[in-house]
Description:
Blueprint (H helix, E strand, L loop, with lengths): L6 E7 L5 H12 L3 E3 H11 L2 H11 L6 H12 L7 E5 L5 H10 L4 E6 L2 H9 L1 E4 L5 E3 L18 E2 L6 H15 L1 H8 L3 E5 L4 H12 L3
Parallel strand pairs: 1-3, 1-4, 2-3, 4-8
Antiparallel strand pairs: 5-6, 5-7
Bound molecules: BIS(adenosine)-5'-pentaphosphate (AP5).
The site of BIS(adenosine)-5'-pentaphosphate has 37 residues, from helix 1, helix 2, helix 3, helix 6 and strand 6.
Amino acid sequence: MCIVVAMNLIMLGAPGAGKGTQAQKLAAYLKVPQISTGDMLRQAVAEGTSLGIEARKYMDAGKLVPDEVVVGIVNERIRKEDCRNGFILDGFPRTLEQAKALDKIARIDHVINIDVPEEILVERITGRRSCKKCGAVYHVKYNPPKHKDRCDVCGEALYQRDDDREETVRKRLETYRNQTKVLINYYSDQHKLVNIDGNREIEAIFKDILAKLGAE
Ligand code: AP5
């Protein structure tokens, strides 16, 4: 049984490090929402909203969507009722400006930094398949669905993200190095950083995260 007090968590790590995979498992275990800015932006793109049309230009180029846009989305989302007992931010913050803005609107308890060598990340991302309907994430080799190209959870057809082509992935990794990696020191200085070796089996990583959060 899980008897953890409310926690506000951040998943930090390079593209493909496993933030979404672990955030989904943690969200189910802790019974708190996973808030993925990437998923929210992809939904806006799919719906063709003005936000989506604007965001797509950045996402397709492997660049970050402007801070004020993303901060606005997160600020609105974490005020919702389902976040009262905690939340997991997946893919936010991604710049120092975003982190400073977040400090003004929420208390963060722990920042889970998933570390994976860069040469492994490209293979992980290019083999990723996702479910548009329920957001479940698979990998053709490391975490395949039970039935080829179908989601185990809801049966929907799986798809490959537009930004998971190799040249865009390399650009996203560069963006991470230049704009996001600095957050490791930012949260380490605040004594909130929990370092996790992400180059292991998904279940082993999950158990390690729970142990380090004292949430087993
Ligand atoms: P976003 O969707 O957040 O993408 P990302 O950060 O690049 O991260 P990914 O989703 O690629 O990887 P992940 O770490 O979640 O890995 P996953 O668990 O899927 O952002 C997309 C874009 O939106 C950005 O480029 C930007 O333009 C924009 N954006 C989003 N947030 C923003 C923000 N805050 N500010 C500005 N712009 C923003 O795993 C990857 C694969 O590996 C999967 O196939 C999985 O099955 C597999 N896998 C996972 N763990 C393991 C393991 N232990 N062993 C083997 N395989 C594994």
